[in-house]
Amino acid sequence: MHTVECDVGVAAIVRRARSILLVQEAHGRYKNCWGLPKGYVNKNELPSHAVLRELSEECDIEGTIRGVQSIRERLLDGTPAIFIAYLVDIDEGQQPKPGEEVLTTRFVRAEEFDQLEWISDAMHSMAIGAVNSNQALRTIDYEGERGHPYMLHTLPKSWGGEA
Fold first, then answer.
1. Domain 7-154, what fold?
2. Fewest Cβ atoms nearer than 10 Å: which of 29, 84, 99, 130?
3. Where exactly are the structural domains of the chain?
4. d(CA 157, CA 163)
């Protein structure tokens, strides 16, 4: 393998019926724009751990990763930039509250998506894809067996093969 410097970001897709949890940005160039709860991966942090941390920081809720729904890749000034959107389950009783980085948190119905000013077309597409599909790579946590952070994201057994 060859090591390369990479920009890695993550987002949480939390669904309720035909709604997705969105946040409205409080600062920066995307102030007042809508998107998924998201952020960067820190050094010595798995992306799957980063997405749960970001969800807690931005929405004051805890979640469990169910799988990977989308991956966006691009070159940013010659550096690979990877963005992973995870499907995250939360307990029904949890109510999101905005953290310091966001103005508002709320579940938004798919029918309202086109009325929002989105952070990016890619994030808008991720939200639409999550509402319209129940398919995702499932996540298996091998940390207990391996003794170090180790996650596998793979096709569910029921996709295109024997169960």
1. Nucleoside Triphosphate Pyrophosphohydrolase (3.90.79)
2. 29
3. 7-154
4. 5
